[in-house]
Amino acid sequence: MNSNNTRESESGNATSRKRILFLAVVPVGILVNLGIGTLVHFLKLPLFVDAVGTILVTILVGIPAGIAAGVLSFLLGGLLVNPVMPYFSGTQAAIAIFVGIMARQGFFKSIPRTILTGILLGLVAAVVSAPVIVTLFGGITGSGSGVITAFLLASGKSVLKSVILTGVSCEPVDKTVQCLFAFWLLRSLPRNLKARFAAGGYIRRNVDT
Amino acid sequence: MWTSPPPPPIFRGLATLLAFFGIVIAHSVILLGAALLGVLVTLSVQGRLRAFARFAGAVILPVGLGLMIIWGLVRQGTPDDMAEPSIRAGVLYATIVTLRLALLGAVFQAAFLALPTPKLVNLLHSFRIRGRGLAVIVSTLNLWPDFRRHVENIVAARCARGLMPDRRLITRLRQLPLAVRTLFISALGQGLERADSWEASGLIERLNTLGARANGASDCSPIAGAAWLAMAALWVIAATSGWP
Amino acid sequence: MDYAVLASEYRRKPVFLDGSNFSGRTAILRNWCSECASAGGRGIYVGPNVHQSVSSLVPTVADELLLHASDSARFDRLLDVARALGLDRCYDQSPFTLSGGEQVLLVTLCKLGLGPTFLGLDGTIEELDRDNAQRVIELLSSELAAQTTTVLTSNGYSEDRHWRPAWRLPASGFDHAETVQKRPCLDSANFLFTPPSESGGLEVEDLSFSYEHHAPVLRSLNFRLEPGKIYSLEGRNGVGKSTLARILTGVLRLRRGRIVFNDRDSNPWKTPGRNVAMHFQNPDSQLFADSVERELVDLPMPARRAAAAFAGTNSQLTEHPFDLPFVLRKRLALSAVAHLSKPWFIFDEPTLGQDALASDEIVKMLRRMAEGGSGVVVISHSAEFIRRLNAKRMRLEDGQLHNVEPSAQITQ
């Protein structure tokens, strides 16, 4: 084999390595997103955890894979879990993009940084979900936060503003918990998995590998 | 119409999109209500009514109730109508939104839920989804039932080692992080091995060929497809015209 | 042995690579796979968990065969063989709903369908019964394998190996990239038994169970198990052994019938794992910590060190359990349950992936547990393991439990 072939096969190997990671991790991200929902339902817990898989895939592989995992979780979730999930796939894409940008700057390196990321992520999610909630849901999502929306509407604010303000008060807490969860999960990965992902994604900038 | 051969995938997709568009712009309670009834009948014929009932109980009911309270009692009007408070207007608006939500869910289920997975592959393939995207979607769908069993096994293992000694809420909450961690790590390891095996056996390329081959010899009826599209178009016209 | 020599001498002749745990067989197989690929051929490695090798890219068994056939002529041949193997009954099912043995047949057939130059089956056929094992060997020697060199490894007792390998190569003494220098041993001398605070008989009265919308799995079961004895629970795949075990442990909720422990009514669902602890087949669903030490932290103090020593993980206390090789993960999961202080234990395939020596140590461990006053129930495909345990054999059939003669053949 001459050197030309070796160089070609090396870059071919790199592309095929990236492809393998994408093929391996995106289904896992989708399954984990939906699987956590199943787990929560199975343990009869009053929680709603919807983005941990998306956050993990984005940090491990990158933004395109994260978008794929998030959007597909919610599209397939429409078939497997609840048919209104597809309308929130846009929010998942926004989550993947924002998490990727923050992870690239190392904002999952420590707990305080992760908390900041979570708070900002919550704001992003609230703003992106608001139009969907207003047009399709008339302002409510059926969770307890409807009470806050009712209160704001009663005080005369417009629907959009009420929904955004409701989101801004609830989402940051939820998203911070999910980000911290992802932070903890990434740190507890076995060495061999951390090594496998060290080449791509943002894990090297955020976790000791 | 329900028993005739299915429409070609692309017609199914277009008709569904048109239906969604019509639902979002419709403003008549009677129209939305009639449409919902029609779709529910379809779902019942497809044998998927129970899935809709679960969705209705879990999402529509709480949302509908909340909407009635907010728009009927609290705001007493519609979002754009800043005129004098009218409980009737508010309740009407709440009803429309609830019906719309129910329809959106029901149409999605009627269009895609009854599809056996092989047809879904054809559908995706005809939408030009190939290679990695196709593999990821079909693999996830095929793995889902097995993955659910894996989730149950993890909870079972925690019970069987005495790590979930009772069924109180706090004990159950404590299971979540550790169960998810094991779920994630084992799934990731398996996913990597599976992807390696796909690569070693060249299965992604073969999947593309399979999809193309299946689409060539399909039992779809273009007439059924045209019928679906016509119905969807009629629906959009009815919705836009504000009839009745 | 050089890959080129192997390939030229052993086409259509499945070779058995002999060796104990950690003799480097997996490394050898993977090496040959990559050497095959470098030489321009296609090398396929299939591990012990056959479930991993099902592609999941297609929904049905028939489609899985179609996916792996290189052309329509080959597909027809695969279908013929599938029919002969009895897989045609399952054409419309998802491959994941097949029994373990059927999955092994399907995966072997599919991989052969690709026409690989090298096929490594690493522990894949370990649990196969006599008939299925014979079928796999015939498949690997058939015309379908004309271009394929197959190397197999297996563990467990040779008495359980229902196929006689015509060609064998020893694993030790090979020149390969990774040789495991230290071989962790499973040593029952390290096992520390903590007697339970309360021991007693486990009795079941009129127990019936069915999954939602399915036919009853267990019908009016009545039996009594005495402490200090070892029982073997046998029966076909899917007959309900796992269901019964889960009900006794408290994982599944009992709706009809009574469970009595030590002559008192017991409801395991409310307090899972209190009287009956269980070890499952797959270790990867039972390890929850990020280091071996932390994995064993819920054990009674003196048992913690013993548990790590027994599993052979003394020198790896800070390692992540998922960084350990499969054999060690299985031993760790086994040890974590065996060192609990409970009146009753259920072990599902405790010798999975373990060689004969390790299996014997597990026999000794289980005997010590029974002698110490706990009751032990074992589910195993290995007739030799059950024989060495001198277990009292029970078979679950048609929702009922029957006693089995000690010398009867094991049902699968």
Number of helical elements of chain B: 9
Can you count the helices of chain C?
12
How many beta-strand segments of chain C? Answer: 15
What spatial form of chain B do the alpha-carbon principal axes imply?
A: flat
Average the pLDDT over all residues of chain C and give the rounded result. Answer: 90
Largest β-sheet summary of chain B: none
Structural class from helices and strands of chain C?
A: alpha/beta
Series of H and E elements of chain B? HHHHHHHHH
**Tally of structural domains of chain B:** 1
Oligomer: heterotrimer
**What number is the mean pLDDT of chain B?**
83
Strand content of chain C: 15-25%
Q: Report the largest inter-chain contact.
A: A-B, 62 and 66 residues
Give the proportion of residues in helices of chain C. 25-40%
Number of strands of chain B: 0
Strand order in the sheet with the most strands of chain C = 11-12-13-8-14-15
Secondary structure layout plus pairing:
The complex is a heterotrimer of chains A (about 210), B (about 240) and C (about 400).
Chain A: H1 3-42, H2 52-60, H3 63-80, H4 89-104, H5 111-137, H6 146-154, H7 159-187, H8 191-197, H9 203-206
Chain B: H1 9-25, H2 29-46, H3 49-74, H4 87-113, H5 117-126, H6 131-160, H7 169-201, H8 203-216, H9 222-241
Helix pairs in contact in B: 1-4, 1-9, 2-4, 3-4, 5-6, 5-8, 6-7, 6-8
Chain C: H1 3-9, E1 15-18, H2 25-38, E2 43-46, H3 61-68, H4 72-85, H5 100-113, E3 118-122, H6 130-140, E4 149-153, E5 167-170, E6 202-209, E7 218-225, E8 230-234, H7 241-249, E9 256-261, E10 264-266, E11 276-279, H8 292-295, H9 301-310, H10 326-338, E12 344-348, H11 356-371, E13 375-379, H12 383-389, E14 392-397, E15 400-403
Description:
The complex is a heterotrimer of chains A (209), B (244) and C (412). Chain A contains 9 helices and no strands. Chain A has 209 residues and is an all-alpha fold. Chain A starts with a helix and ends with a helix. In chain A, 53% of the residues are buried. Residues 1-8 of chain A have low confidence and may be disordered. Chain B has one domain (9-241). Chain B has helices at residues 9-25, 29-46, 49-74, 87-113, 117-126, 131-160, 169-201, 203-216, 222-241. The mean pLDDT of chain B is 83. By secondary structure, chain C is of the alpha/beta class. Chain C is built from 12 helices and 15 strands. In chain C, the strands form 3 sheets. Chain C has a 6-stranded mixed β-sheet with strand order 11-12-13-8-14-15, sandwiched between helices. In chain C, strands 2-3-4-1-5 form a 5-stranded parallel β-sheet, with helices on one face. In chain C, strands 7-6-9-10 form a 4-stranded antiparallel β-sheet, covered by helices on one side. In chain C, helix 3 packs parallel to helix 5 and helix 5 runs parallel beside helix 6. The longest helix of chain C has 16 residues, at 356-371. Chain C is globular. Chains in contact: A-B, A-C, B-C. The interface between A and B is large, with 62 and 66 residues.
